[in-house]
């Protein structure tokens, strides 16, 4: 059974720059870039205004990209408490925006993403950006690094989430056969969100 393509929007949360990137594809097949960029907010604005701006930016992206799932970087402890708090707040906004639309949200740690993209959980940003550029067959590395990191999150989830969806679908079909019912498959799940699992879409740049 062919694994359905998945369109994933990755979010590298941050207050000053919130990286956003969307890719489309399936495990074991070439991936396609859908869109990449950042949402920026002025450092001297009030925190409430900055979060509202990030929410508006993410909502615009969700409208345009129409992803099947959203992958957000899992916040981890840092020495700079102010930085980690801002990252956590931006992360919460991204999770809220996706969940409000009923979209699946996955959290991936930086080391998980690095390992998936480069094979090493300790890779630096340059290495991640270089691999993202190669995997998506881009002419140049996405800038700033937050944008490349968002694409890395999306790629990581396509590879990991695609396999998880296939297992879930196989298990649901097996249960349906055993019980004589139709069951709820991953394909039906995505169709319920207005997307057929076997769809074919062109790339939007």
TrEMBL record:
Positions contributing to Mg(2+) 2 binding: 73
GO CC, any one term: cytoplasm
Entry EC number(s): 3.1.21.10
The keyword DNA repair appears for this protein: yes
Record keywords, A-Z: Cytoplasm, DNA damage, DNA recombination, DNA repair, DNA-binding, Endonuclease, Hydrolase, Magnesium, Metal-binding, Nuclease
Keyword Lipid metabolism: no
UniProt: Mg(2+) 1 binding residues: 12, 146
Cited InterPro entries: RNaseH-like_sf, RNaseH_sf, X-over_junc_endoDNase_Mg_BS, X-over_junc_endoDNase_RuvC
Localization of this protein: Cytoplasm
Highest taxon above the source species: Bacteria
Active site per the UniProt annotation: 12, 73, 146
Requisite cofactors: Mg(2+)
Catalysed transformations (reactions): Endonucleolytic cleavage at a junction such as a reciprocal single-stranded crossover between two homologous DNA duplexes (Holliday junction)
GO molecular function, one term: DNA binding
Primary location group: cytoplasm
Manner of cofactor binding, per the entry note: Binds 2 Mg(2+) ion per subunit.
Function according to Swiss-Prot or TrEMBL: The RuvA-RuvB-RuvC complex processes Holliday junction (HJ) DNA during genetic recombination and DNA repair. Endonuclease that resolves HJ intermediates. Cleaves cruciform DNA by making single-stranded nicks across the HJ at symmetrical positions within the homologous arms, yielding a 5'-phosphate and a 3'-hydroxyl group; requires a central core of homology in the junction. The consensus cleavage sequence is 5'-(A/T)TT(C/G)-3'. Cleavage occurs on the 3'-side of the TT dinucleotide at the point of strand exchange.
Record-stated family: Belongs to the RuvC family.
HAMAP family with a match to the protein in the record: RuvC
Assembly: Homodimer which binds Holliday junction (HJ) DNA. The HJ becomes 2-fold symmetrical on binding to RuvC with unstacked arms; it has a different conformation from HJ DNA in complex with RuvA. In the full resolvosome a probable DNA-RuvA(4)-RuvB(12)-RuvC(2) complex forms which resolves the HJ.
UniProt-listed NCBIfam families: ruvC
Protein name: Crossover junction endodeoxyribonuclease RuvC
Species in which this protein is naturally found: Streptosporangium becharense
Recorded name of the encoding gene: ruvC
């Amino acid at each position: 059974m062919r694994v359905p393509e998945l369109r994933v929007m990755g979010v590298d949360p941050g207050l000053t720059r919130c990286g956003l990137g969307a890719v489309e594809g399936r495990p074991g097949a070439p991936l396609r870039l859908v869109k990449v960029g950042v949402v920026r907010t002025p450092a001297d604005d009030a925190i409430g205004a900055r979060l509202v701006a990030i929410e508006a930016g993410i909502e615009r992206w969700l409208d345009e990209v129409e992803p099947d799932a959203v992958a957000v970087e899992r916040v981890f402890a840092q020495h700079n408490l102010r930085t980690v708090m801002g990252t956590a707040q931006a992360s919460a906004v991204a999770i809220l925006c996706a969940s409000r639309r009923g979209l699946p949200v996955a959290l991936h740690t930086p080391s998980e993403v690095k390992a998936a993209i480069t094979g090493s959980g300790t890779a630096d940003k340059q290495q991640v950006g270089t691999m993202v550029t190669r995997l998506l067959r881009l002419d140049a590395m996405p800038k700033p690094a937050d944008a490349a990191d968002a694409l890395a999150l999306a790629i990581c989830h396509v590879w990991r989430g695609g396999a998880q969806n296939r297992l879930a679908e196989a298990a649901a079909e097996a249960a349906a056969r055993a019980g004589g019912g139709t069951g709820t498959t991953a394909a039906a799940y995505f169709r319920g969100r207005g997307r057929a699992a076997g769809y074919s879409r062109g790339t939007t740049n």
